[in-house]
Amino acid sequence: MKVKRFGVSLEEELLKELDKLVEENHFPNRSQAIRYLVKKSIVEEKWQGNQIVAGAIVLVYDHHKRELLSKSTDIQHDYTDLILSSQHVHLDHHNCLETIAVKGHANRLIELSDRLIGLKGIMHGKLVMSSTL
Ligand code: NI
């Protein structure tokens, strides 16, 4: 991809905030920080506008709760058009970590994620909102 240079004028205080962001996120330079912020804003707009997006649903739960497992499977079978893959890792004797990669209209991904994360027995759940490009 062709990279173009342009000048940016910022108030001193805002520039300080940008440099703080560069430092805290270990960005190599200001350009990378600006790239990150622009991309983040585009991704947020796509999710808000119900566009086709991609992401991952992360779930942590105790696999001894059998009812939770069957409910989670039932729900996932209602959204097979969205689910690209799922990975199950056994963290320890009790706990499992499931990562479900998803792609589709933002509203339906949120709906799927809400249904899964809302299941009784889920200890932690998070939807990572990303984009397809
Ligand atoms: Ni497991």
**Which fold does the CATH topology of the largest domain refer to?**
Alpha-Beta Plaits
Given the structure, what is the number of helices? 4
Mean pLDDT over the full residue set: 96
Please report the first level of CATH classification, the CATH class of the largest domain.
Alpha Beta
Write down the domain tally: 2
Alpha-beta classification:
alpha+beta
Cofactors, ions, other ligands:
nickel (II) ion
What would you report as the Rg, rounded to the nearest angstrom? 19 Å
* Biggest sheet, spatial arrangement of strands: 2-3-1-4
Instruction: Report the oligomer.
Output: single chain
Shape: elongated
For the secondary structure, the number of strands is 4
Largest sheet: 4 strands, antiparallel
The H-level CATH homologous superfamily of the largest domain, spelled out, is ACT-like. Chain A, domain 2
Share of helix among residues? 40-55%
SSE series? HHEHEEHE
Low-confidence stretches: none
CATH architecture annotation of the largest domain:
2-Layer Sandwich
**Beta fraction of the residues?**
25-35%
* N- to C-terminal distance: 13 Å
Describe the protein's architecture and organization.
By secondary structure, the chain is α+β, with helices and mostly antiparallel strands. It folds into two domains: 37 residues; 79 residues, ACT-like. Chain A, domain 2 (Alpha-Beta Plaits), CATH 3.30.70. The protein is 42% helix and 29% strand. It has four helices and four strands; from the N terminus they run ααβαββαβ. A four-stranded antiparallel beta sheet has the order 2-3-1-4. The longest helix has 19 residues. It is elongated, with a radius of gyration of 19 Å. The mean pLDDT is 96. Bound molecules: nickel (II) ion. The site of nickel (II) ion has 4 residues, from strand 2.
